[in-house]
Specification:
This protein has one domain. Helices cover about 25% and strands about 35% of the residues. The protein has a 6-stranded antiparallel beta sheet, with helices on one face.
Length: about 100
C-alpha cells in the first residue's frame, strides 16, 4: 500500500507530497529534493521521519547512512529494502521522473 505524506519544510511555504509505505515497524519514504541522487529509500523506525532510521541505495541495495538504528533494526531495515526493492524503484521512478 502506498501512502502519501504531505510535509511542509521548515521556513518554506511549499508543501511537498512524497510517496511512502509502512512496512513492519518502519516508515519507508522518499524526499523530493533527493531526486537528483541515485535511487534510494529512507526508512524511519516508527511513525515519524525524525525517528532513528537509515538510507539505502536501491541499485545495488547498500546502506548509505545509519541514523541511530541498532544492529537488529538495521538488519530488519535491510531485509525490508531487499524484499520491496522493485516496488521502491517503481515508486522512485514515478515520483522523481513524472
Amino acid at each position: 500500500m502506498c501512502l502519501q505524506i504531505s510535509i511542509t519544510p521548515r521556513g518554506r511555504g511549499i508543501t511537498t507530497t512524497m510517496p511512502s509505505k509502512r512496512v513492519g515497524g518502519f516508515l519507508c519514504y522518499f524526499v523530493s529534493y533527493d531526486c537528483e541522487e541515485p535511487p534510494h529509500i529512507h526508512l524511519a523506525k516508527g511513525k515519524e521521519r525524525r525517528a532513528p532510521g537509515a538510507k539505502f541505495w536501491l541499485i545495488p541495495v547498500q546502506l548509505e547512512r545509519n541514523r541511530g538504528l541498532n544492529a537488529s533494526e538495521l538488519r530488519e531495515a535491510r531485509i525490508i529494502v531487499q524484499e520491496n526493492r522493485s516496488e521502491f524503484l517503481e515508486m522512485w521512478n514515478e515520483h522523481c521522473h513524472d
